[in-house]
Design a protein that fits this description.
Length: 568
């Protein structure tokens, strides 16, 4: 069924465009993943673009929902400026990979112009200047998008999404007519430029494909055409050749895989920092690696870089400001990122464990134990698409999924269903805390039958009581009485059991109550804000008061709570 065209580029048009772009990328995701060879042949460009736009669309929907909830009968929706800024912010905080980070900056560039133009134009209003003025603003938005994205990349390369974006802006500049004509010209210009990318980038020419990121941008621009005309372009799929099958069995991407001529890690994080600090950060990261893209502004940035020393890249962010949502991907041998360079495609592993973890320290612990960790920042739980992609990236026939949070159980179940539909056997163990996940992982045996392994892991998790010590953010009623903002809360199995004023004293009370029912092993996971002496005090308490009970201590990093406690 044809889409109802949006006559004016207003807030409703932004909402429609995000929804159509998300649907189009969902359909094209696998095709785009399949042709991804630059800058790293990791097969995830389509997925990264999808997740980036998913975050943008969710932010726009939240703005509309907020206006609907506060509607007083005026019927006035959000302004164009509000919708555009939400789109840009959502894309920024949800950007994934090199391609998603660049797309976030493209959307931010457009949003800057649209917000300037649309401060007073709400979803139920139209501009009075006429189609020509609207078209001129859309042309300027596309130009700002292309220029700002190019400036965000440390070393721009032709034959990539940057080239396609510039071609779209050039074509839009030459277009005459209303917004629909400008959008169609931008799409056609981008599509033509995409077809020429193999002649500009040797890696693409050797693989016989067009640029994957550029293909994604063409898909997004096709959605813009459909938004403004009501009809999808007749040939949305960008032309590209099929990857040739070499006679000697080697991969055709022609890329030198990371670890054999390229950096070993992809590092991505959000960063709260000022402009001057980010300028210094760019210089430092540029010296550490390549594929550097830093996008954002107004104190919030998304940083993407490929490096050999992931720790140094994160440390540089710490020196510049406050990094969070840190994602480190190892382009290791056998990983999907390194398929090629003379090796046949990697066979699926028999079994893998995917776990959601609340802090960088635990992410490292889980990874060392053989699991694929999905980092969840406080108040920022992973979406179902992210968990499904983590299962997909595990590249295994059988996957054990550990949500490690009671509130994530339904999200994890949806991700498991999606993976099962793709032919992966998934078992969801309903772990409600990271310490239960640690217990489950401790008994994981990949060589065992799948059902037996799942039963053993489920039993270990279920036999582990869990607790956390946190600081109350506001006054509220709890199962232990009324707490005030700033009180120290001790939660056992999800319920508030202790309200105190001192972290160490509250933690000791919680631990005593847990060990009153018995136990053999105490696991302590310390957050960054926990007192330095709390672990030593608790270890001494266990040693002196509870015979034959062992204690193990881990550093969890920025995990939200001050302390996690597990008793097995």
């Amino acid at each position: 069924m044809a889409q109802v065209p949006q006559r004016f580029f207003d807030a409703l048009a932004v909402r429609t465009w995000c929804g159509l772009a998300l649907s189009a990328l969902g359909r094209a995701r696998e095709e785009i993943d399949a042709i991804n060879v630059y800058p790293v042949a990791d097969g995830d460009t389509g997925t990264n673009l999808y997740l980036t736009v998913e975050s943008a669309a969710a932010a726009v929907e939240a703005v509309f929902s907020g206006h609907e909830a506060g509607d007083t009968g005026t019927g006035r929706g959000p302004s164009l400026a509000e919708a555009a800024r939400a789109m840009a912010h959502g894309a920024l905080i949800g950007a994934r990979g090199n391609s998603g980070t660049i797309l976030a900056q493209l959307l931010r560039g457009m949003a800057q112009v649209l917000a300037e133009r649309g401060e007073g134009a709400r979803a139920d209003e139209t501009w009075n200047e006429g189609a020509r003025t609207e078209a001129s603003e859309l042309r300027r938005a596309l130009r700002r998008a292309a220029d700002s994205a190019r400036q965000a990349v440390a070393h721009p390369v032709e034959g990539t999404v940057l080239t396609v974006a510039s071609a779209a802006a050039d074509a839009a500049d030459r277009a005459r007519g209303g917004c629909d004509a400008v959008a169609r010209a931008a799409y056609e210009g981008a599509r033509t430029a995409l077809a020429a990318t193999p002649g500009q980038l040797p890696a693409l020419e050797r693989a016989g494909v067009v640029d994957a990121g550029g293909h994604g941008l063409v898909t997004v621009l096709a959605a813009l055409v459909e938004t403004l005309t009501g009809q999808a372009p007749s040939a949305v799929r960008a032309p590209h050749a099929r990857v040739p099958e070499p006679e000697d069995g080697t991969a055709a991407d022609g890329e030198c895989p990371p670890g054999q001529g390229g950096p070993a890690f992809e590092v991505i994080y959000l960063l709260e920092a000022g402009d001057a600090a980010v300028a210094r950060l760019r210089q430092r990261l540029d010296a550490l690696g390549d594929s550097l893209v830093v996008v954002g502004g107004d104190g919030l940035w998304n940083v993407h870089v490929h490096v050999d020393d992931a720790g140094a890249a994160v440390e540089a962010g710490v020196e510049a400001g406050r990094p969070y949502r840190i994602r480190i991907t190892h382009f290791g041998q056998g990983d999907v990122h390194t398929t090629g360079g003379g090796r046949p495609p990697r066979e699926r592993a028999q079994r893998a464990v995917v776990a959601v973890v609340p802090g960088e320290g635990l992410a490292g612990l889980y990874t060392e134990a053989g699991a694929r960790a999905v980092l969840a920042r406080p108040g920022e739980p992973p979406a179902g698409a992210e968990l499904a992609e983590a299962v997909r990236r595990a590249h295994a026939r059988e996957v054990v999924l550990l949500p490690n949070d009671a509130e994530l159980r339904h999200t994890a179940a949806a991700a498991a269903d999606q993976a099962r539909a793709e032919g992966v056997r998934v078992a969801l163990i309903p772990t409600r805390s990271a310490v239960q996940g640690i217990a489950a992982l401790a008994v994981h045996e990949p060589g065992r039958r799948f059902d037996e392994d799942v039963v053993a892991m489920t039993s270990a998790a279920g036999a582990t009581r869990y607790a956390e010590v946190a600081v109350a953010e506001r006054q509220s009623w709890t199962t232990a009485g009324i707490c005030q903002a700033g009180d120290v809360l001790g939660l056992i199995d999800g319920d508030v059991a202790v309200i105190g004023s001192d972290v160490t004293a509250t933690a000791t009370t919680v631990l005593d109550r847990m060990l009153a029912a018995g136990g053999e092993l105490v696991t302590l996971v310390l957050g960054d804000d926990a007192p330095e002496d709390v672990a030593g005090h608790l270890e001494t308490r266990v040693r002196e008061a509870y015979l034959a009970v062992d204690t193990v201590v881990y550093r969890g990093g920025r995990q939200g709570s001050l302390l996690l406690i597990g008793v097995e």
